[in-house]
Structures are given as C-alpha cells and as structure tokens.
Design goal:
Helix content is about 80%, strand content about 0%. It is mainly α and about 110 residues long.
C-alpha cells in the first residue's frame, strides 16, 4: 500500500506541476487540492484497515467496512471544505482528484 500512496503523491505533484507550467502557478492550486481530497481518505482507509492486521476474519471485515465508510465520509467532507476555498476551479480540481485515483486502476492492471 505504501507504493500506491507514494505513486499517488508523485502523480499529484506531476499534475499540479503540469497545470503550473501550462496555465500558471495559481492554476496548480485546484488540481493539488483535488489530489489531496483523494489522498487523505485513502491514507485514512489504509491506516484503519491495517489496525486489524492479525485479527480474526470478522474483525478484519468489520474494519474494512468501517474504514470504507470513514473514507467516503471524509471524502465528502474534504470536497465540501475545498469548495469553500476561494479561486477553486472545478475541472482542474476534478483532474487532480481523478489523477490520484487512477493509481488504483493502474495498480489493478499492472498487479502491484
């Protein structure tokens, strides 16, 4: 999982840098925040699930469901908070969010 989090961080930086280069430094803010909205709930989920490491199967499954529920709530809360910030652009925000989530799709394809 640390590989996925590392790749997410790198992709957030690369996406934000691309916006900074092609649209100016202020444009990098929105994709960076979108990436953070994806990254932090994933970090929460991973930490929550790994707390149950070595427990019985029922505790692991319960931990998985609790972690996923918390991840969804945290994602909604972070989106709400980010939209309160000034000068947030929706499409660059969404680009950063999808770029960070795409790491999971590539991880499944490449079987990391």
């Amino acid at each position: 999982m640390s590989k996925i989090l590392t790749l997410q961080g790198i992709l957030i930086i690369v996406t934000s840098a691309g916006f900074a280069i092609f649209r100016g430094l202020p444009s990098a803010y929105s994709p960076f925040m979108g990436g953070i909205v994806a990254f932090l709930p994933n970090l929460y989920f991973i930490l929550w699930v790994f707390r149950a490491n070595g427990q019985n199967a029922k505790k692991i499954v319960n931990s998985f469901y609790a972690g996923e529920s918390g991840k969804l709530i945290l994602t909604a809360l972070l989106f709400f908070l980010v939209f309160q910030l000034p000068d947030i652009e929706f499409l660059p925000l969404l680009t950063g969010y999808v770029a960070a989530l795409s790491v999971f799709w590539f991880a499944l394809i490449l079987r990391w």
